[in-house]
């Protein structure tokens, strides 16, 4: 996708991300988390907000929150507090959401050059099902409430407006997703809603340091929609700016089917949430021991992987980014590195990000198999294949044929080589005879090479390759041709 | 033993007799359950002959519980139409503890709607009448509990206190009422009015009964993060004198404070002399910020209430007024018809105080006043073991006397509210009888004894000594179903 046409304007984008935590129970009660169960079976007086019920903070949610804060390089508040955020809605049983306000769990972090404003804990709302054509609450005859989701632990992450393009926003969100996935704090699945992203979008004249009026884009439920939604909004804003019209502060809903933005509410209609400290909970003051345990529990995170791939494995920056920011791809790469010590990291990286991804993409029918981790090519197989190529047991071209077989059927590279007779011709007398035949078949080319015109060697090499069905090593063939023709 | 004698027993004495085999707990339960409730003290009562629970410690001793506590399967309304017919799916920790200790629930007592009131006239189910004079209020909001205990409709009762809701009705009905330290008793299952102030506590006929009940109630509850219990538990009181104790009389809340009736002042002064005769050293002290207590309280409590009461929206339980014209209309009609005028007044006050642009001026400022009031008390307790004040500025007033003037009504809490804001314990014991300023029958006057946080055992001990010396033994006109001419 090409970026939006902003001629003269710069995009300023900040993200607000909600992550459902993978705790066993809800944020403030003992009800189990569930997905897809019968409605309203995971409920109790607390998450139904019965009179007199009180919240009790989930320790595991706090631990995940601290892990995420640390992974994003934040300072963890020695003492944070909860607030009540008041609003009436049927999905909000207490009519207030317990959230954090002026003293969040963590703040002042940074991930891949994007500053993290804050990370805080809160609870999810219930799920509303509107019966009727509109699918929205207005215009529905009946709405049903499923409280299974009510009280699911959430972490909200707010970035500073440091992103400069829709594509960068998408790539960064993928990195954030991988980071949280590596910790194991969430399923971070956008389609299922365990990862949700709102974007604050504004534009300003390129080179300006001031912030323009921002609009908020709500709930774009896939990476693609996030990118498209932001792009559409940037274009809308640029158009207004070009026409000399003001940009209004408002909340917008992006419809991915039509690509249009509709206003949910204007600044005047903004809620007054009447935040005040939640008297039913005591301040959250994590002990040094807990912080240490959280620190020690963090695995190698994608951002750290990136640096290791670039600095220790010597991968080019773009390739290091590809392999590390996508956590599953990174894990696949790690498994391949461990599977066969004979395969070089650079070679593996090239084969995985190059031929394998390209071939999978050709075959992509949208069922997710385009990802190496979901393909028939296991990390062991790709490592074995790369080792075969690097040991010159097969040529690169034969390697690509093996890869095609692997993608289609899976299996072992060595067996495929054996079965298809793809092993390199290592017998030099056989090769020498073929080279002689090539020279005989194309005396013109041979003469030119003999005269020193190396460009003419192509048809001769091509002849040998055709005859060997690519099993000959191109370098070796070239060497033999020159030797036989006495060309230096 | 005659029925009247049976019902005159304190809870502890009844328990002793049951344990000694001199009294049957079934007989006692039925004696209470059979009495007619002419005071409208109960919103729900168990039938005579019912035998709910019972067991070891309390041996089936009956108890009345304020209708603010959730009781599984039993109507719980908090005195509000909006919860009419609501039967909770669970039982409050405090009630569960009593049941586990072998208490039997006699009934749920009437109260000001959502505990908002000082006269019980804010109950959606009609006011409770004062057993000393049925033309007068019993105080509030635990008015039903106080009247029931005073009138012999229950040996003891559970109430809640947010700004004086146990102490003030105890004073107006001539019984003992204790508000424990915030955090001593679990709030789980106690319908919230103002969460940072609400505490459950006993309304009893004797200080010993209050100690016994608190012993069973206090303790940390994993379902209430703000509960911590009382370290070392509650020691049963035994003190007979006050020697060695230093008692402070706060000038701002003392007999010279504004609005204290002459009769109340007289009883108070007499009690101070008695305290000195019992060996305590009495001196004046200052709580300079306490005069702002009522103002701060009527910002903070309504602010919390505005959020706590927002859940009554007709969606999940309780009253729903749905005429099919949309969600907002359903909300408005349900809440418009479900809540009474005082509740609405406080929701509006609280909502306003928390509104964007006003938060600092109201809520923020009130919080700072609260901090200063607590600091005043801490400073006073460096010099004194306890502080004493009148519990309420007046004796029981006539029904309707203050309903048109909310501010006058709020001033009932003048002496109790600063204690609530500081989160510390206080007990009200009957100190004598006095005529109202405007004339009328002699009515009970309460003395408030205030202690530092978690000083309940010592506080009860001192109250016990004073109780013995005062020897209050007057009975209300309405007692055990009989009316004294």
Descriptive account of the structure:
The complex is a heterodimer of chains A (488) and B (485). Chain A has 488 residues and is an alpha+beta fold. Chain A has helices at residues 59-71, 166-183, 223-242, 288-297, 302-311, 317-325, 327-339, 345-363, 379-390, 396-409, 413-420, 428-441, 443-450, 458-468, 474-485; strands at residues 9-20, 75-76, 83-86, 96-99, 106-111, 114-123, 127-131, 142-146, 153-159, 195-205, 215-218, 250-255, 260-266, 276-277. In chain A, strand 12 (250-255) and strand 13 (260-266) form a beta hairpin. In chain A, strands 2-5-6-9-1-10-11-12-13 form a nine-stranded mixed beta sheet, covered by helices on one side. In chain A, strands 4-3-14 form a three-stranded antiparallel beta sheet, with no helix packed on it. Chain A has three domains: 9-294, no CATH class; 300-420, no CATH class; 428-485, Arc Repressor Mutant, subunit A (Orthogonal Bundle). Helix content of chain A is 39%, strand content 17%. Chain B has 485 residues and is of the alpha/beta class. Chain B has two domains: 3-286 and 387-483, Amidase signature (AS) domain (Amidase signature (AS) enzymes), CATH 3.90.1300; 289-370, no CATH class. Chain B has an eleven-stranded mixed beta sheet, sandwiched between helices. In chain B, strands 12-13 form a two-stranded antiparallel ribbon. Chain B is globular, with a radius of gyration of 21 Å. Chain B starts with a helix and ends with a strand. The mean pLDDT of chain B is 96. Chain A binds chain B through residues 45, 48-57, 84, 86, 88, 90, 93-96, 137, 143, 145, 272, 274-276, 279-282, and chain B through 68-70, 76, 78, 83, 86, 88-90, 92, 187-192, 194-196, 222-226, 303-304, 306-307, 310-313, 315-317, 327, 331, 351, 354-356, 359, 363.
